[in-house]
Amino acid sequence: MKKMLTKKSYAFGWHYPEKNSAKTSAGLSEEVVKKISTLKKEPAWMRAFRLQGYQKFLAKKMPTWGGDLSRLNFQNIHYFVRPESAPSKNWQDVSPDIKKTFDRLGIPEAEKKFLAGVGAQYDSETVYHNLSAELKKLGVIYASMDEAVQKYPGLVKKYFGTLIPALDNKFAALNSAVWSGGSFVYVPKGVKVERPLQAYFRINAARMGQFERTLIIIEDEAEAHYIEGCTAPTYSENSLHAAVVEVFVGKNARFRYTTIQNWSDNVFNLVTKRARVETGGSMSWVDGNLGSCLTMKYPSCYLMGRGAHGETLSLAWAGHNQHQDTGAKMIHVAPQTTSQIVAKSVSSDTGRTSYRGLVQIDKSADGARARVQCDALLLGAKAKSDTYPTNIKKNATAIIEHEASVSQLDEKRLAYLQSRGLSESRARSLMVQSFFDPIIRHLPMEYALELKELINLEMEGSVG
After folding, report:
1. DSSP 3-state assignment of 25?
2. Which of 267, 327, 290, 253 is nearest to 459 (CA)?
3. Residue 143 pairs with which residues in a beta bridge?
4. Is 38 exposed, middle or buried, given 0-12, 13-18 or 19+ CB atoms closer than 10 A?
5. How far apart (Å, rounded) are the C-alpha atoms in residues 3 and 33?
6. Residue 7, pLDDT score
7. Are 250 and 282 in contact (CB under 8 A)?
8. Looking at per-residue confidence, does 356 or 2 come out higher?
9. Residue 266 contacts residue 295 (beta carbons within 8 Å)
10. CA angle 156, 184, 296 (to 5 degrees)
11. Predicted confidence (pLDDT) per residue in 18-38, tens digit
12. Which of 83, 233, 286, 387 is the most buried (most CB within 10 A)?
């Protein structure tokens, strides 16, 4: 095997000059939390929620497991940066630099082609949000979270923070205190949203903290698919992304949440995602993690109703000095519930991937069944991979299946592909894409092509 290069270029590392209409000073304090709430003209209940979150953040200790958080300095972060563009439903009203940013990222071109609705967040706030007229007539709501607090307070108060309270973990508490932006989705009973809803999150400012809050409610017998993408410029100082996502899936409803994350390697990506699934409902997380210096993310499903199903398909790539600590959690509470976790990871150069998962089957979950499959691929002698599974079975009628593997690229297969006329780099790229195929094939065609291109970019520089 040839020598590994030490670093590859990051295709989305460009940025435009920072132009904002409001910005908090670096560092976190009660005054900063109050200022964010004041700038947003929030109701008293949300202000109180934020202040409670801040107190929980102070009380919670930093995680001692997972990745190295020693370089994360909370007092060096700007917790709120409002872009110069006011939120708009008209793309032409967005400021020129922000338009250029999202044009380069394919927004709103993707909306024109096949999306039912699209949102674009730039630093701390959503700058563009739109939903097709057809879905509006059916009662579907797709808005920024800030707009939802003002326009739909009854719905928001009923669900907000109930699945992931501020006391859940330190970064959920931080998000509760300083959240800004994110998406609010409501799909009424029986409505099937045929085309995806998309949100795109872009950090532009240096030493920026992005803390979107997403709340999704899929009523009984409804269906939808939500897709998000993430990028950021490359800076010499660290940025922080700490989102919270709460999903409620009703009886016999179906929902899929797809993420293609491609942060620059100066971003700490520390995210809490959780879904509650009722009787006969189905929840699927499709999670693509490329980029960031450290990712800690474990999408979870709480299977609360009989026959509920949860699934996580996780893809992770760790390149030079990157650590992807990812996985999933499946909590079986009701009888006849089923779950599946498929985790595929690649470590190249000095990268490290870690699968961290939990499957818990409670006493009440008669006949529950869970399956976990973890596969890791190492590219290079210095690459690392770890597996930390936790399986808890409290019901004798339940079944948990678990399998894991660690391997390197098959040199014989590589030689065969080269003998058929492929270059070594192209042959390696195809083999890696084949390794990830069980997850890529679950993506819409446009996103599958995008992810394959991102894998090709990761492969550039993996062979000297």
Report:
1. coil
2. 290
3. 184
4. exposed
5. 49
6. 43
7. no
8. 356
9. no
10. 105
11. 666 678 889 999 999 999 999
12. 83
**Angle between the N-to-C axes of helices 44-59 and 170-178, in degrees from 0 to 180, rounded to the nearest 10:** 150
Residue identified by tokens 């990051």 is 10
Phi, psi of 120 (to 5 degrees): -130, 120
Per-residue confidence band for 17, with pLDDT thresholds at 50, 70 and 90: low
Q: CA–CA separation, 222 vs 252, rounded Å?
A: 8
H or E element: which one contains 174?
helix 170-178
Structure tokens belonging to residue 451? 């992810």
Q: What's the pLDDT at 423?
A: 85
Helix (H, G, I), strand (E, B) or coil at 428: helix
pLDDT reported for residue 18: 63
Q: What is the mean pLDDT of residues 137-146?
A: 94
Upper half-sphere CA count for residue 369 (Cβ side, 13 Å)? 4
CB contact at 8 A, 33 and 54:
yes
Using the structure block, give the residue that is written with the tokens 């009886």: 251
| CA gap 317, 83 in Å, rounded | 31
| Number of residues that make up the chain | 464
Report if pTM > 0.85: yes
Place of tokens 């818990």: 360
Residue type, 456: N
Query: Other C-beta atoms within 10 Å of 86: how many?
Result: 12
- CA pair distance 414, 422, nearest whole angstrom: 9
Inter-CA distances, 150 with 145, 153, 170, Å: 9, 6, 27
Q: Is the pLDDT of residue 125 over 50?
A: yes
Task: With cut-offs at 50, 70 and 90, classify the pLDDT of residue 463.
Answer: very low
**Cis amide prior to 108 (ω within 30 degrees):** yes
- Measured CA to CA, the distance from residue 139 to residue 203 in angstroms comes to 32
What pLDDT is attached to residue 322? 94
In degrees rounded to 5, what are phi and psi of residue 188? -65, 165
Q: How far apart are CA 337 and CA 368, in angstroms?
A: 5
Rounded Cα distance, 464 and 125, in Å: 41
